[in-house]
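pasting for the record
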Amino acid sequence: MMQAFIKNSVERLSGDQVWLERSADFSRLAEFVHSVRPRATTTPLVRIGKPGDGGYLLPDDLEGMKILISPGVSTEVTFDSEMSKRGLHSFMADASVDGPPVDDPNFHFFKKFVDVHEDNLNMRLDSLCQKVPPELDGDRILQMDIEGAEYRVLLDLDEDNLKKFRIMVVEFHHLTRLFGEWQMQIISATFRKLLRHHYVVHIHPNNVAPPTQRGGVSIPPVMEFTFHRKDRTALVEGGKCLIPNPLDADNLPHRPAVVLPECWR
């Protein structure tokens, strides 16, 4: 029995610890990958932010928008700065820095990590959303890069707050954990929640590391997903997304490019 478990397991490595996890069923993994493929819609994409890391492709549906919810700041805010020039207020949270690297009257910073509990160091995404004053309330954009905490944070997010996001851009980390059965359940549950109200309209693989391939499925470990709320656009019957998009740019120009594997298109 133990031999069969090891044969059907994937290895996880963290620091000096190694453990085994049961391999995902590849038919279910392929179904998941198919379910999150980008959909061609009637709304074109635009690039916001600089070329490279910190810039993202969004649906050109920004009219009337006033709010950007932006967990994960670090030292890169060209996306937030460009949104500020368009009149959006950016509500930022990150305990790893003392504030954004530039001053902007439309930046509202909270020195906390976004997670699934509340204490002196952490706040829930719902709490960050509640920082928006009533006079600015309305449809919002979510731009989130929180280094792997995104799955639990999005699963924790209140459904009403999720539906307020007209557009979401999320960098998903550790995606090769999809090869493990237990992690695939968590990741797929996160996407099922998001896909109830939103379409995936673009995927950009971060070229920080090459894809891993097993069982005919190739997975880049880090990818940026763009979502558009279903009531704001329409699908193009039989249409295919242009990937890579001419507006795409490598996150790290000094590293080899990563093309989105065919199974994700």
